[in-house]
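== Fold encoding ==
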Amino acid sequence: MGNIYDINGKVIIQEETLEDLLPDRLLIWHDEFDQPTIDLTKWKNVYGDYRGYNWNSEDIMRNISSGKGMSFWTAKDYPKEYTDFSGAYICTNNLFEFRYGRIEAKIRFPSATPHHTTFWTLGACDDVISTGEDTRYDESKGVKFPSCGEIDIAEYDNGTVGARMHWDSNGFDHDNGYASGGNVASLTSTPSDWHIYACEWTESSIKFYVDGVLKGTWDTSNATVNGWNPFKIPHYLVLDCISALSGTINWDIAKTDVKWVRVYAPVGVTEYIKETAISIPATASISVGQRYYLDQTFTPANPSDMTLKWESYNPDIATCYGGMVIGVSAGTAIIKVTTRHNCVAFCKVTVS
C-alpha cells in the first residue's frame, strides 16, 4: 500500500483509509464522490446536443447527484425535435489525462432494460472543446471520433454489459462511425448488482476484469493504421448515459450508481512520476484545410499525469486542439503546448 497524491505529487491521504484498494499498486487519481456536488476540479460536464441526444444543456447538475457515491441518470423530461430524453456526460478532459495503468470503478447499472450507460475513456486528442466551463463536441476540431480511440471498460445496453474497443480503420482523419472494433468480452449477467469493472492498459494489450476476474484481452496493435495508434496516446475518463441504442423506451428515469472511480499507475511503478520536459516537432508545413497531428514525447516517458494545454499564437493561420493542427489560412503560426507542471514546447507551423 502507498499514498494518494495531488496533481503536484504531494501526498494528500494514506491509501489505507479507503476501501477496495488494490494491494501494491500506486493510486494516482481517484474520486470517491464523497462531496455534496460533483468535484469540478476533477470532472467537466459536456453540454449540448450530440448524435441525437441532449446532455445537460441547461444545468450542469441536472442529471447528476453526489454525496455517498454518485448517481446519474437519463430522464424523459427534455422534449426536443428529435429526442425526448436528457442525460449526464462527465469527463476529465483537460483536467486529468494519462497513458497506461489500471482503471477501475464500482458501478451498479439500472434495472431498466432499454437504457445505455458507459464507463469509458477517449483519446485526449479528440474533438471535445473546452472554453472555460463550457465543454462541447466540435467535429471540425481535434482528432475526429472514433479515430481518437475509445476504451469501453463497461458498456451497459439493453440489459447486457460488455467491454468494447473502437477506433477508425482509416486512421486519424476520418469520421466513419464505428468502422473498426467491437465487443471484446461479455462482463456480467447481474448488471443491477454492484461490481468493480476494470481494465489493465499497457502498450501491448488491454485486459478487462469484473471483480478481479479476467474476462477478455485485446491486442492494441490491432488499431495501428498508417503509423497512427490511438491506444498509445494519453486518454481521459468518461461517465455518461443516454436513452438506449436498442429497445423501446417505456420509463421516465433510469439511474446508474457509481461508488468510486480510480486510476492506478502501471505495474511496477511505486512513486508518483513528474514530467521534467516535453517535446513536439519543432516545425511543420501544411496546406489550408490540412490536419496534422503533433506527436508528444514526455521525459520521463510515462509521467503520472499527461494533461496538456494547447495554444495557437496565430489562430487565424492555424488552430490546435488536443495536438491536432488545422491550417486556416496562409502564413506562419506558433503552437505552444504546456504540461501539468508547466514544461513547454513550441512548433512553428507554416501554412500554404
About this structure: The chain has a mean pLDDT of 84.
